[in-house]
Design brief:
Blueprint lengths: L10 H14 L5 E7 L4 E10 L4 E2 L6 E2 L4 H14 L15 H4 L10 H5 L9 H4 L12 H5 L19 H15 L3 H10 L8 E2 L13 E2 L8 E2 L14 E3 L1 H12 L6 H7 L3 E2 L8 E2 L4 E3 L6 E7 L4 E7 L4 E7 L8 H16 L4 E6 H4 L10 E4 L3 E9 L4 E22 L6 E7 L17 E5 L11 H5 L11 E12 L4 E11 L8 E11 L5 E3 L2 E4 L4 E11 L7 E7 L19 E8 L5 E8 L3 E7 L8 E7 L6 E2 L5 E9 L11 E6 L3 E3 L5 E8 L8 E6 L24 E3 L1 E6 L5 E6 L3 E7 L9 E8 L6 E2 L5 E7 L8 E6 L12 E6 L17
Parallel strand pairs: 15-17, 16-18, 23-32, 25-33, 34-43, 35-44
Antiparallel strand pairs: 1-2, 1-14, 2-3, 4-8, 5-8, 6-7, 9-10, 10-11, 11-12, 12-13, 13-14, 17-22, 18-21, 18-22, 19-20, 19-21, 23-24, 23-26, 26-30, 27-29, 27-31, 28-29, 31-33, 34-36, 36-41, 37-40, 37-42, 38-41, 39-40, 42-44, 45-46
Helix pairs in contact: 1-11, 2-7
Length: 847
């Protein structure tokens, strides 16, 4: 695999990529991006490297690369394995002193492999370390970093699950130093940096960096102004994220690593042996210091990085032999990978394979197109332009199935010509090889898309595929159609007309990763005070109501316009639910209206998801029909895929509460948390873990968690503890998204696995609230018992590193009558539990 040196693109192609980079920069202060392949080398920059001097970013500028450091460290560890100095199954206790072993839970059962692939269960030290900002401004020794996890509960037993933890790679750094007698920085330099001549890559804090690196920015105190954080010590990351580099060096490192020049073939195969990245939104799988992303281009290997003022990416596309890197000097969520590759891959095609017509099908020459939907004309599309010419007259139905090969996409359907200047034709498209029904009998909700085309619509020379995707009421789609089969229904609505359609196919680009939608239901019968009577739907209640809650979760990136999903059922909704004419409670999304069957009955609804989690509550009514069942199904969509294990839910509507069966399983439930302090400024997270003494019943177990505290103001706002947490962007594992109770000071969580968790951060509301404290406790409800040793948790939420406990003072009565000897009680209230030594409060008496 030979790669050209430098930027080898002509002006036109380089301009296209530069424009894409400039348009994609949005809120990023500055960025350097680069692509390398056997056909294409490109380096681009956009923005500012230092806001004080307005110095622009240059192509050779250096940035902090954060966790891409882990790939360097993993490479060193695997080289030591090749030298026989360790094995992947070696226990870490062989290499670490007792002072470190004593800090690590389950240390005696943890292997080198488990550190490398993040399956050790060792808690992440950065969570408690970053809780308070003063930790950022001092130098740290690696052993001091690990002291932050002393006494913490492990995430899981070694090898039983996956959780990203920087502690794993600090431990690996210490192990490398113990084995070699040299610093991890020296080993990386001697084994990787110097042999590859990576002259712009340094281990910050342990070796000088001549010329330094660009400034990095983040609004750390949320005051609306960017703070320069380049001076913050990277000793807080050490071997988990302290390297500084530039795009040229990163690409060279990636090329040498993945083509086998740094590791032997069988070792590289070990590095690329992946486990599922359970609960991760960043990765699909994780290997030995290398992550894997979900992509329509096949597997993608590499890593990303994030420090306080920087973000970095290094990814390898084996099918395209392409390496991509970008370095940003601000802590944002901007994604350059997608837009830049969507520009670069067509350029690659043009450089190596100029597009030429692949198929020419002319009805006048090749034969009439079938009017029988069961035997359509089949076009095996190829890369390039595939032309279809047909003559159609009113009533002449024509069925064409196109097959888009694996690894390619249908970019457009261009109307090349159309004889009539007045009449128009009709087109509809479905997924699959057969168009399932004649148009007059078709429910447009079953169509992928539909629309009219022709000269009268001024469409000659334009792409009609986008118009089809916007057909009102259809499933809909945006942009290119990925590999697969698509059945087209074509019919002229007027006089005889000849037309030509060009189906244009290209290699699959890195489109926005299709989000995966999961769906579940939460069933509950409640009394008039919001207490759960039974975790089931009961149609007839003396006092209270039943609620059926539909919950949706999104795994993947949500586009700015949201994701529109369709939920359908085998029942008429009006027969089971009350108040259907009123907009339902639907946080996390937007209710778009009902979906109807061929009888005109509303059987489902369309819903726009705008956050990672959303729900809809519907109140159940008594239809007098006894106990019944219904099935709710999340339908497939062009812009999303459905989680195969969470796409439908069967719900039983019980006639009366005595009809609800007594559960055969009554687990004991424990409730714990791995981090008790959340900072709105830092954006750190905590994980609430629910542990059952035995597996939940087949339909799941509904547990109720409530806060006994009363915070959040007066009146309707009192007790709304959940408002302090970013619950609609929470990560859920082993259960359905928790539904808040009416007072928003608690939630119902449907647990589907023996261990389930909710990972969330504090909601950055921009208000000054100091340090607040919240308690959440499991409530006694039918179906489970509570582990008295793990019945609740306490969380603190701080604004930022300078936050203090807020104190309020009230006096009652406020009017004192001297002759009556009135006594006034002065009450001090704290927003959080004071420290053991207490708090001294000063007050002044004014007369």
């Amino acid at each position: 695999m030979n790669f050209p040196d430098g930027n080898n693109l002509g002006n036109d192609f380089a301009t296209q990529l530069q424009q894409t980079l400039d348009l994609s920069r949005k809120t990023v202060v500055g960025v350097a991006a680069a692509i390398a392949s056997p056909k294409l080398n490109w380096f681009g920059v956009s923005g500012i490297g230092n806001l004080n001097t307005s110095k622009p970013i240059e192509t050779n500028d250096r940035f902090q690369i954060g966790s891409i450091t882990k790939t360097f460290v993993a490479t060193v560890v695997l080289q030591l394995m090749e030298e026989g100095k360790l094995t992947l199954e070696s226990q870490i206790t062989q290499f670490l002193p007792d002072s470190i072993i004593g800090l690590i839970p389950n240390a005696e059962n943890i292997t080198i492999r488990q550190l490398l692939n993040q399956t050790s269960g060792v808690p992440d030290y950065t969570t408690p370390l970053l809780d308070f900002g003063n930790n950022l401004f001092r130098e740290w020794e690696p052993e001091q970093l690990l002291e932050f996890i002393a006494g913490q509960t492990p995430a899981f037993a070694p090898g039983e699950s996956w959780q990203y933890s920087n502690s794993n790679y600090v431990l690996l750094g210490l192990i490398v130093e113990k084995i070699t007698g040299e610093s991890i920085a020296r080993e990386i330099r001697d084994r990787i940096l110097d042999p590859l001549e990576l002259s712009n890559t340094f281990f910050e804090g342990e070796e000088p960096i001549p010329g330094g690196f660009v400034s990095g920015y983040w609004d750390i105190n949320q005051d609306g102004r960017l703070d320069d954080l380049s001076f913050v010590t990277t000793s807080i990351f050490w071997s988990s994220g302290s390297i500084v580099s530039n795009t040229q060096d990163l690409l060279r490192f990636g090329k040498e690593l993945f083509r086998g020049d740094l590791l032997q073939p069988d070792t590289l195969e070990q590095m690329l042996t992946f486990v599922d990245a359970v609960g991760s939104r960043a990765f699909v799988k994780y290997g030995l210091g290398v992550a894997q992303l979900r992509s329509d281009k096949g597997v993608i290997y590499g890593h990303n990085g994030l420090t306080l003022g920087y973000r970095a990416n290094l990814w390898y596309f084996p099918q395209e032999e392409l390496f991509y890197a970008d370095l940003q000097n601000s802590r944002t969520i901007n994604n350059f990978l997608e837009p830049i590759l969507n520009t670069a891959l067509p350029i690659l095609d043009e450089l190596g394979n100029p597009t030429v017509p692949s198929i020419i099908y002319d009805e006048a020459i090749s034969g009439d197109i079938s009017g029988d939907s069961s035997v359509p004309l089949v076009l095996e599309l190829q890369k390039g332009t595939n032309s279809l010419t047909a003559t159609s007259v009113r009533g002449d139905r024509e069925y064409v199935t196109v097959k888009v090969p694996e690894g390619f996409q249908l970019d457009s359907v261009v109307l090349v010509n159309y004889e009539s200047t007045d009449d128009i034709a009709f087109a509809a498209v479905q997924e699959g090889s057969i168009f399932t029904e004649p148009f007059r009998e078709t429910n447009v909700a079953n169509l992928l898309g539909y629309g009219h085309f022709g000269s009268g619509l001024n469409q000659v020379g334009t792409d009609i595929l986008d118009d089809l995707g916007r057909g009102e009421g259809a499933i809909g789609f945006n942009g290119a159609l990925p590999s697969g089969e698509y059945a087209f229904w074509l019919q002229q609505t007027g006089a005889t007309t000849t037309y030509t359609l060009d189906f244009k196919v290209s290699s699959m680009t890195s489109q926005p990763i299709t989000p995966v939608i999961s769906f579940n239901t939460i069933n509950g019968a409640f009394d008039s005070e919001d207490n759960l009577l039974v975790p089931a739907i009961v149609k007839s209640l003396e006092d209270g109501t039943s609620l059926l809650t539909f919950v949706f979760s999104v795994d993947g990136e949500i586009p700015p316009e949201g994701v529109i999903v369709t939920l359908n059922s085998n029942i008429a909704l009006r027969d089971y639910f009350a108040n259907l004419g009123v907009e339902p409670f639907a946080p996390g999304g937007e209710f778009l209206g009902a979906v109807y069957n061929d009888k005109g009955e509303a059987t489902g609804f369309k819903f726009k998801l705008t956050q990672a989690n959303a729900l809809i509550n519907l109140a159940v009514k008594d239809n007098g029909k006894g106990t019944e069942k219904a099935t709710f199904t999340l339908e497939k969509g062009a812009d999303y895929s459905v989680d195969t294990g969470a796409g439908s839910s069967e719900v039983t509507f019980y006639e009366t509460i005595d009809k609800v069966p007594v559960p055969s399983v009554t687990p004991k439930v424990g409730f714990s948390v791995n981090n008790n302090t959340l900072s709105e400024a830092m954006g750190n997270s905590t994980t609430l873990t629910f542990t059952l003494s035995e597996p939940p019943p087949p339909g799941g177990l509904l547990v109720y968690v409530k806060s006994p505290t009363q915070t959040g103001g007066e009146g309707d706002a009192a007790g709304r503890d959940l408002a302090e947490f970013d619950i609609y962007n929470a990560e859920i594992v082993g259960g359905a998204f928790p539904a808040p109770n009416f007072a928003a000071n608690g939630f119902y969580f449907k647990i589907t696995e023996q261990t389930a968790s909710i990972t969330l951060s504090a909601f950055a509301d921009g208000e000054v609230e100091g340090i607040e404290e919240f308690s959440f406790e499991l409530q006694e409800t039918p179906g489970y018992t509570i582990d008295s040793q793990a019945a609740g948790v306490t969380l603190k939420v701080v604004d930022d590193a300078t936050s203090l406990i807020q104190v309020s003072l009230t006096a009652s009565p406020q009017v004192l009558v001297e002759s009556e000897g009135t006594v006034s009680e002065h009450k001090f209230t704290l927003s959080a539990t004071p420290p053991k030594e207490g708090i001294t409060i000063q007050s002044k008496l004014r007369i």
